[in-house]
Amino acid sequence: MIALNSPSNPAVEVVQTSVVNTEECTAEKKDFCLNGGTCFFHRNTDYLMCASNYSGQRCEKLILGTYTKTHQSVVLIVVPVTAVLIAAFILLISFYR
């Protein structure tokens, strides 16, 4: 079975997701694909198309996304926290007057 969108098979690159004259794999081969992968048959070969964020021979490997802090995400956190702290400080001062 060939995994189309797998880093372990860099020679195969999927440019277009629609394939002409394909059939679904047989019932016993459908269970071969894990994590929502799709098995299909084309020109006497079984192929495997992994769902987003999965790769490997059976779509068994989870590809973790990366997260980078941007200026916008820092502002979205700092501004509300600062506003809450200022409001708490004003309430505390007005309570002790």
Automatic annotation (TrEMBL):
UniProt keywords, alphabetically: Disulfide bond, EGF-like domain, Membrane, Secreted, Signal, Transmembrane, Transmembrane helix
One CC-aspect GO term: extracellular space
SUPFAM superfamilies registered for this protein in UniProt: EGF/Laminin (SSF57196)
Keyword Cytoplasm part of the UniProt annotation: no
Entry's transmembrane regions: 74-96
InterPro entries from the UniProt entry: EGF
Source superkingdom: Eukaryota
Disulfide bonds: C50-C59
Major place of residence: secreted
A Gene Ontology molecular function term of the record: growth factor activity
GO BP annotations listed: epidermal growth factor receptor signaling pathway; positive regulation of cell population proliferation; positive regulation of mitotic nuclear division
Domain EGF-like stretches: 21-60
Location(s), subcellular: Secreted
PROSITE patterns, sorted: EGF_3
The protein's name in its UniProt record: EGF-like domain-containing protein
The organism of origin for this protein: Eptatretus burgeri (Inshore hagfish)
